[in-house]
């Protein structure tokens, strides 16, 4: 097994983006593709590492770039400033997500008929929005994502299977929002799963998250369990 990688430049409406593709070159021919949507700070090493992890599972991992080439946050204030326009314009967010899926689908290493998406924190909201639009992906997986609906997808049928991996103590998605998401997905006809990890906070997959007083805390057990659940989910949908 040799994991290969390359960066991929793409654009939309005059904005330039840089994605990151990882694949195992010992596998011949196209293989299922999984788009990885980043957290509020922008695309970085964490998402690239997840793309490599997906390649080791036999998929092509594509870490997308929502903000623009070289545009990254370095602290909570900058991250919020980058994320907020997309929370205020969910149609723009959805368009950027659909673009990334099409870019991934167009790579030679990717089987265009078998594509899914996954995301972390803000990226979890992004992949849920992708599903809410009725996008042609087989499944989406949200890790400690945000759940509040966009307001422009009511009445849509969700064809993608949905997996939400959630810290039950996450203050950014309290239990009432979890129930609301379940209701929303049910009404949209989705095949959905929501897994709650007890005594687990926001950003549980991020080793740098060490601020329990503000609701951020890494959890080795939740990280391990959630990745195993993702593996089962991808094996099922592909």
Describe this structure in words.
By secondary structure, this protein is an alpha/beta fold. The chain has a single domain (3-237), classed as Alpha/Beta hydrolase fold, catalytic domain (Rossmann fold, 3-Layer(aba) Sandwich), CATH 3.40.50. Helices cover 35% and strands 27% of the residues. It contains six helices and ten strands. An eight-stranded mixed sheet has the order 1-2-4-3-5-6-7-8, with helices on both faces. Helix 4 (122-132) links the parallel strand 5 (110-120) and strand 6 (139-143). Helix 3 (90-105) packs across helix 4 (122-132). It is globular and about 45 Å long. It starts with a strand and ends with a helix. The model has no long low-confidence stretch (mean pLDDT 97).
Can you lay out the helices and strands and say which pair or pack?
Layout: E1 3-12, E2 15-24, E3 31-37, H1 45-56, E4 60-63, H2 76-88, H3 90-105, E5 110-120, H4 122-132, E6 139-143, E7 161-167, H5 175-187, E8 192-197, E9 210-211, E10 216-217, H6 220-237
Parallel strand pairs: 3-4, 3-5, 5-6, 6-7, 7-8
Antiparallel strand pairs: 1-2, 2-4, 9-10
Helix pairs in contact: 3-4
What's a quick, concise take on this entry?
It contains six helices and ten strands. By secondary structure, the protein is of the alpha/beta class.
Alpha carbon gyration radius: 16 Å
Low-pLDDT sequence parts: none
| Oligomeric category | single chain
Mean pLDDT: 97
Name the descriptors.
238 residues; alpha/beta; Rossmann fold; globular
């Amino acid at each position: 097994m040799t994991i290969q990688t390359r960066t991929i430049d793409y654009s939309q409406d005059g904005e330039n983006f840089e994605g990151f593709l990882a694949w195992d070159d010992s596998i011949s021919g196209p293989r299922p593709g999984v788009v990885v949507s980043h957290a509020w700070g922008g695309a970085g090493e964490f998402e690239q590492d997840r793309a490599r992890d997906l390649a080791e599972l036999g998929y092509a991992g594509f870490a997308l770039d929502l903000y623009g080439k070289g545009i990254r946050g370095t602290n909570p204030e900058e991250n919020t400033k980058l994320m907020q326009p997309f929370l205020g314009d969910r149609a723009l967010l959805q368009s950027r997500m659909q673009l990334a899926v099409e870019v991934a689908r167009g790579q030679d290493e990717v089987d265009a008929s078998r594509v899914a998406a996954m995301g972390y924190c803000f990226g979890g909201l992004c992949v849920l929005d992708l599903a809410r639009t009725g996008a042609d992906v087989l499944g989406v997986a949200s890790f400690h994502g945000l759940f509040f609906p966009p307001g422009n997808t009511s009445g849509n049928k969700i064809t993608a299977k949905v997996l939400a991996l959630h810290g039950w103590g996450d203050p950014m998605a309290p239990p009432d929002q979890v129930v609301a998401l379940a209701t929303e997905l049910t009404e949209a006809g989705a095949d959905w799963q929501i897994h709650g990890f007890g005594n687990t906070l926001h950003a549980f997959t991020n080793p740098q998250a060490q601020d329990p007083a503000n609701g951020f805390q890494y959890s080795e057990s939740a990280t391990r369990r959630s990745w195993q659940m993702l593996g089962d989910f991808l094996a099922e949908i592909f």
